[in-house]
């Protein structure tokens, strides 16, 4: 039976309905009996009280362009069509939601996440889509996928560039998730991190007010003393800001490693010169907010 349905796919033999798309010259011959058994949406559309009675169906749904709709039809006939085009895959996902095709929607969902795994740059487009159509499960899966990528690989160059291109609220959510990953913590000392964020990407992100709160936990594990020493354009404000993102032990190690650390920096950070006190770090959030603003 399945083989027979596959052979019927896009064949005009016994077809009793032709699907067309406004603005496109492509048409698809289909069989009402096949489509109505696939989903309640098609059942009502093609065989319900208010069904289409003619032999023509002009599909006017927003995302129903021919290439995406062909994948929808293929599923109805037991034919699996996989697209490597992100735009088409997103259209298919929206249509599966509209047509209540749960099985195909799940497959498409996993395929979209695979796009992020293969190239995290795709995350921005997928996040925009998930926010635009309120697909919260897709959004959450994308953020989790990005976090796992960082847990396993050193891809901070790509990730920091991606963050800069995202809307502030999206970036905050990603930073918040990444901040919870234990792999970002140091194994021995804050001076020798497991991963290091390239210094050319640090400053513009740190200067964003929007990543202030969720960003603190994330970046406290990314700016090493080695990186700071290599920043030729750094100034007192930058060093003070970096120190303000650390806990007491991290700050003590970092301050000791900076050869150009001056006594007045300790004064402005409200910490004793060459003697970091954990209690004094209660003042640091205010210093952080000062420079982030």
Automatic annotation (TrEMBL):
Family matches, as PROSITE patterns: BTB
SUPFAM superfamilies: POZ domain
Organism: Meganyctiphanes norvegica
Pfam family, one: BTB
Domain of life: Eukaryota
Protein name: BTB domain-containing protein
Domain BTB positions: 15-85
């Amino acid at each position: 039976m399945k083989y027979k349905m596959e052979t019927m796919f896009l064949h005009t033999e016994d077809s009793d309905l032709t699907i067309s798309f406004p603005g496109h010259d492509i048409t698809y011959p289909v069989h009402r009996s096949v489509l109505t058994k696939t989903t309640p949406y098609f059942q009502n559309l093609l065989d319900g009280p208010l069904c289409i009675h003619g032999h023509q169906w002009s599909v006017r749904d927003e995302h129903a362009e021919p290439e995406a709709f062909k994948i929808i039809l293929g599923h109805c006939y037991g034919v699996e069509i996989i697209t490597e085009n992100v735009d088409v895959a997103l259209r298919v996902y929206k249509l599966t939601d509209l047509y209540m095709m749960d099985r195909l929607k799940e497959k498409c969902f996993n395929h979209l996440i695979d796009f992020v795994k293969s190239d995290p740059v795709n995350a921005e487009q997928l996040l925009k889509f998930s926010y635009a159509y309120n697909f919260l499960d897709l959004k959450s899966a994308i953020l989790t996928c990005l976090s796992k990528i960082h847990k396993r690989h050193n891809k901070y160059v790509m990730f920091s560039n991606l963050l800069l291109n995202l809307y502030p609220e999206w970036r905050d959510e990603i930073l918040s998730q990444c901040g919870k990953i234990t792999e970002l913590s140091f194994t021995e000392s804050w001076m020798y991190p497991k991963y290091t964020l390239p210094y050319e990407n640090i400053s513009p992100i740190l200067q964003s007010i929007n990543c202030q709160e969720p960003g603190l936990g994330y970046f406290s594990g990314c700016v090493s003393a080695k990186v700071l020493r290599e920043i030729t354009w750094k100034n007192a404000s930058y060093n003070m800001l970096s120190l303000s993102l650390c806990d007491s032990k991290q700050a003590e190690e970092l301050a000791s490693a900076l050869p150009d650390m001056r006594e007045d920096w300790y004064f402005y950070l409200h910490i004793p010169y060459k003697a970091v006190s954990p209690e004094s770090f209660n003042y640091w959030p205010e210093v952080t907010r000062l420079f982030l603003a």
